[in-house]
Structure formats: C-alpha cells, structure tokens
Amino acid sequence: MTDPTYEFTRAVTRRPAASIVNGLRAEDIGTPDLARMEDAHAHYVATLKQTGAEVIELPALEAFPDSVFVEDTALCLPKGAVLMRPGAPSRMGEVAVMAPTLDALYDELRRIEGPGHIEGGDILVTGREILVGRSDRTDAEGVAELTRIVSDWGYSLREVFTPPGVLHFKTDCSLLDGETILSTKRLDASGCFEGYRVLHTAEGEEAAANSIRFNQFVLCPAGFPRTAEMLTNHGFEVVEINNSECAKLDGGMSCLSLRF
Ligand code: GLY
What we know:
By secondary structure, the chain is an alpha/beta fold.
C-alpha cells in the first residue's frame, strides 16, 4: 500500500528567473546568485527524478521574482487540488499562471476565491489531517475557505499558528512519514504536534526543519550535519541540497515543488 503523504509519482517545479534578485525577504542577507541557484535547483530536480517520479519543469517567469517557490500557489491532494490566494500581493499573479498545469492533471481543481489569503507553505498534510498555520501570509478567512473545500473531500483540517517572525508554518517543520514530523523545538513547544512522533532539529540548525520526504529520500538543506546525522540514524535516506541562495529569500526544500 502506498502512503500518499510521501509517496509521489509527480512533482511540479519552476526554474528560477533572473528577477529572483528582487524576491521577497524578511531581512537582506545578500543578493541571490542566479547561477548558483540554478545549479542547486538542477540537483533538486534530479533528486526528485531519481526516485522514479515524473517532474514537470515549468519555465522561468520573469514577471514574478518568487515564482520558483511553486508550493505557495496550490495544495495538491489525492482527491483534488486547490489553487491558493497568496497573502503577498506581488505573488498573487503566480496562481493564474500555475492553474492550467494543474487543470490538465486533476479532475477536481478548486480555488480559494477570497477575501481571505492562504499560501501552500503554511500547509502540512499528515497521515491523519491537514494542519494550516496562520501567519502573516495566511489568515483566518483563508483557512476557513480551505476548510470548506477539503471537508467536501473528506479531509479534516486543523488551524494552528506559525511562530511570530517565521515566514511559513513549514519553515519550521516537515513531514517524514504519515506520523513523524521533523520540527524546530520552538514550533513543537506550541503543542501543535501532540500525538505525533516528533524529531527535533539540532540546536542552532533550525533552518534544517524545511526539508521534504519524497519517496525514499529526505531532501535536506546542506550545512546542518547534526540534523542530517540524526535523520540518518533514524533510518531516513538523506540527500543534502545546497540551499544558500533560496535561504536569502526565506525559501527552502518544500517551497520548490508541488508533490502528488
Ligand atoms: N521569498 C519567498 C516569499 O517571501 O514568499
């Protein structure tokens, strides 16, 4: 039997655009280098493909500097997909560009109409529920509208909270299997993962929390050796991907793909 939370046959990615230098960021820690980002992106895509999955690689979109972070545009579930309504005004237009790709792949494609906002980076789908973190990008109205849509498909959704100052809920956590979550201690301390098996990122390695389980691999940002070793010791097959350039824009492993 397959586990739909991490066993995927497809992913959608988008190449980074030269306009990435204008991408959103909470703090300016340097201008992202396009060539370096492209190299890391190619490694990321190759790793997804290595699992046997088909990767639909979309072209760069110069008009949308953050469009490499495709995860924020949609939620992809086995029963259907939902187009998001980003809370960042500069990212709103990315959704309409993603729509035809998902429309071709899904029988059921719904959309968040508003007035609320919600971004895919705030959504963690586990084996038992959909967790959505309210954040500066995801508000109560957005969560309520998504709740109505996914309950039609039989999913239960629980609203939780992204820690203050953290971009997205999944900046601080990721799913390792249906019942196991990799989390920072600060997010786990909120109690939102009660009942799950939780593995913590190592002290000072909080940025490793934005990883993804994709089939047999856990793709982790490179440079967090103690967290990588901990995951290996728990039996996960870790692939480290350079995230230096995406990190300048608060982006990470989950942001770079839609997986289904
Ligand atoms: N730079 C990614 C985002 O802010 O959405």
